[in-house]
Design brief:
The complex is a heterodimer of chains A (about 475) and B (about 100). Chain A is an alpha/beta fold and about 475 residues long. Chain A is built from 15 helices and eleven strands. Chain A starts with 8 loop residues before the first helix and ends with a helix. Chain B has about 100 residues and is mostly helical. Chain B has a domain of about 40 residues: Histone, subunit A. Chain B starts with a helix and ends in a 19-residue tail after the last helix. The chains are: A alpha/beta (about 475), B mainly alpha (about 100). At the A-B interface, α9, α10, α11, α12 and α13 of A face α1, α2 and α3 of B.
């Protein structure tokens, strides 16, 4: 079932270079695919005219031999990233009519290399959710089985790639929002190291976790996107001053001598049998290919969800305080004073999950609870990060499932927030530790639903992730 | 039940949110179940552990104090629900005597 994947950018690039197609024709085909599968609700805005115009310009540049590194790559962008003079809604009523005055750095860098941006994609409101059911503009459906969720919160970006509407897409990953949907839809999803990609122009959710990353139909395509968007940006002071290596060089197909750790805790109770079998098979394939498979332990694994949701909601409640109806966004009509304007604008503009997380975050930060929840969670975060640093001293990377199950049914968890939070059990730890992680398809369950294997590496060691994930991709497809 | 409806009302006030009576009941229940799960952290001894607030090594960033182009006033006001030529407009804050 993994072979249902759509053309990679590498394939399109060869067709472009061989003059078998044009960028304009590729964009037209992409627009047709978006139209044909409108019911998936992947896009909030489609740039039909703008994209075709860009495509014609890229075709001219190609003819003149001066096209950029991503010439003709069709990219969809999560609607939490700013594009100048376009709406950025975060799938919320409160930002429904907000038009961005500038480009996000990641967007700007893609356009500079002649990628064609095709549209803005649907998400859980303010990226809060694991199913893309929390959008104010309706849920997104999984293209593999439309009765199921695509995962979240970057569901629209993931579906755009999984359904052949774009070569790649930008998502954001605060606690798994790129990797978990990639796993549910059978594509590649990368969360880079915290600070690897500038967050300038990304609407802030939880600033100590948020990271922008690519969805793609191949590991090589994900590497091509990261190559362009990674690197320090003076406009984001938290973007790292760490040189960006040549990622294509790491895709060698050779994993001999690579030490891969299997975290014992990740294969314990609660893991779907088919998911376990698929990931264990990946370990066997890697061993046969010459990698060394070792058992490792992450002793504080049981505490990741609690720690994550305390810190994430605290940061989100603070970041979302700016939506008050005064300077931008939705304002309730007829308020008699300022406080009433704040309260009614926020209460009418935010959806239920956003309000729930603001309440939880405000609670854990409020007088009398700060030490017991927020400060405690910051300390446990240190212990969790130390677990990763210790394990990654013994091995080069970790291998574990991306999600404990395959895609669940729409509506299944929407009324039980805790059950929804627990579906992030394997993804939040990489965000807590600030390490990079990638999800790569590794088979299907007995119902034909995709399964993702997750590879987690050392900070700024994306090359090892690409090397191992690319090998997994080749071995699984054989 | 550690969190009461009164707590929910207090936190809602801090967050500048309002809820119906039904929503408050549901939120009280949901916050209690989530916080009860989070209580597990209390089982961990974290004495002597330094809180982690930034996951990568960072250094202070210095730059010359120079004027660079930014968002213009017109652009900054473009998304405002109500504005004059120079200011954001909001309901009256100070009442007349």
């Amino acid at each position: 079932m993994v072979t249902t994947r759509h053309p990679t950018y590498d394939q399109t690039r060869r067709s472009l270079d061989g003059e078998e197609t044009t960028c304009e024709a590729t964009v037209s085909a992409s627009l047709a695919a978006i139209e044909r599968r409108k019911g998936l609700n992947a896009f909030l805005t489609v740039f039909a005219e703008r994209a075709l115009e860009r495509a014609r310009m890229v075709d001219r540049k190609r003819a003149e031999g001066r096209a950029g590194r991503l010439a003709g790559m069709i990219v969809a962008v999560k609607d939490a990233l700013c594009m100048r003079n376009e709406r950025v809604t975060c799938a919320s009523r409160i930002l429904e009519n907000f038009v961005s005055p500038y480009d996000a750095t990641a967007v700007e860098r893609l356009e500079r290399e002649d990628a064609v941006l095709i549209g803005k994609t649907n998400l859980d409101e303010f990226a809060m959710g694991s199913s893309t059911e929390n959008s104010a503009f309706g849920p997104v459906r999984n293209p593999v089985d439309e009765s199921r969720v695509p995962g979240g919160s970057s569901g629209g970006s993931c579906v755009a790639v999984a359904a052949g509407m774009a070569h790649t897409a930008l998502g954001t990953d605060t606690g798994g929002s790129i990797r978990q949907p990639a796993s549910f839809c059978g594509i590649v999803g990368l969360k880079p190291t915290y600070g690897r990609v500038s967050r300038y122009g990304l609407v802030a959710l939880s600033s100590s976790f948020d990271q922008i990353g690519p969805f793609a139909n191949s590991v090589a395509d994900a590497a091509r996107v990261l190559q362009v968007i990674a690197g320090h940006d003076p406009r984001d002071a938290t973007s790292a001053h760490v040189p960006v290596p040549e990622y294509a060089d790491s895709i060698t197909g050779d994993v001999r001598g690579v030490r891969v750790g299997l975290p014992r805790e990740a294969f314990a109770a609660g893991l779907h049998a088919d998911v376990r079998a698929a990931v264990v098979r990946v370990a066997d394939l890697l061993r046969d290919a010459g990698a060394e498979i070792l058992d490792v332990t992450l002793p504080h694994s049981a505490y990741t969800i609690s720690t994550y949701y305390i810190l994430m909601t605290a940061e989100a409640s603070s970041n979302l305080a700016r939506y008050d109806g005064a300077r931008y966004g939705y304002r309730a009509e007829g308020a008699r004073d300022l406080t009433e304007m704040y309260v009614r604008s926020r209460s009418e503009g935010f959806g239920p999950e956003v309000k729930r997380r603001i309440m939880l975050g405000t609670y854990v930060l409020s007088a009398g609870y700060y030490d017991a929840y927020y400060l405690k969670a910051q300390k446990v975060r240190r212990l969790i990060q130390n677990d990763f640093f210790d394990a990654l001293r013994r091995v080069d990377c970790l291998l574990l499932p991306t999600a404990p199950t395959t895609a669940f049914t729409m509506g299944e968890k929407i009324d039980d927030p805790l059950a929804m939070y627990l579906s992030d059990v394997y993804t939040v730890s990489a965000n807590l530790a600030g390490v990079p992680a990638i999800s790569v398809p590794c088979g299907t369950d007995r119902e034909g639903l995709p399964i993702g294997a997750q590879i987690i590496g050392k900070q700024f060691d994306e090359p090892t992730l690409f090397r191992v994930a690319d090998t997994v991709e080749r071995l699984v497809m054989q | 039940m550690p969190v009461t409806v009164q707590d929910v009302e207090h936190v809602a006030h801090l967050a500048r949110l309002s809820f119906t009576a039904e929503e408050k009941q549901l939120l009280t229940m949901q916050l209690n179940s989530i916080l009860l799960y989070m209580e597990q952290l209390n089982a961990l001894d974290t004495s002597g552990v330094e809180p982690l607030s930034h996951v990568i090594e960072v250094q202070n960033v210095f730059r010359p104090d120079q004027v660079t182009p930014g968002v213009s006033r017109e652009e900054a006001l473009r998304n405002a629900p109500a504005h004059s030529d120079e200011y954001f407009k909001v309901p009256k804050v100070i009442s007349e005597r």
